[in-house]
Amino acid sequence: MNIKNLENSIKKVIDILENQYANQLNNGILELIYKRYKNALICLNNNDLKTIKIAGGVRAYLDSYSDYTCPLVMAMDEAETIYDEVLKDI
Q1: 33 near 64, Cβ under 8 Å?
Q2: Distance CA 52, CA 69 (A)
Q3: How large is the average pLDDT for residues 29-44?
């Protein structure tokens, strides 16, 4: 896995949030997840991979919504998995 895959995966999560949850991004767990993924892009652009804080987003979402098969959960799981792989390589 490489950084470009991570960037694409993070952008996918942000796209889902902005397109499917736009009216819910101003508070609660979705706001926190959104902010963390937006910040992750900034960290990527600054080559500051160790400060990315996307781990735990799936669990946080599921604690609030219990929707295990939604596209957002799947995209966040993919991003977290890729991020873990990237961290192993640095």
Answers
A1: no
A2: 25
A3: 97
Place of tokens 């819910």: 24
Of the pLDDT bands very low, low, confident and very high (cuts 50, 70, 90), residue 20 is very high
CB within 8 Å of 40: residues ≥ 6 apart = 10, 52, 53, 54
Please determine, for residue 89, whether its predicted confidence score (pLDDT) is greater than 90. Answer: no
Place of tokens 């796209």: 15
Q: How many CB atoms lie within 10 A of CB 59?
A: 11
Question: What does the alpha-carbon distance between residue 86 and residue 83 come to, in Å, rounded to a whole number?
Answer: 5
Residue 81's CB: how many other CB atoms inside 10 A? 14
- What is the rounded (10 degree) CA torsion for 37, 42, 44, 49? -80
- What the block records as the tokens of 9 is 């995966």
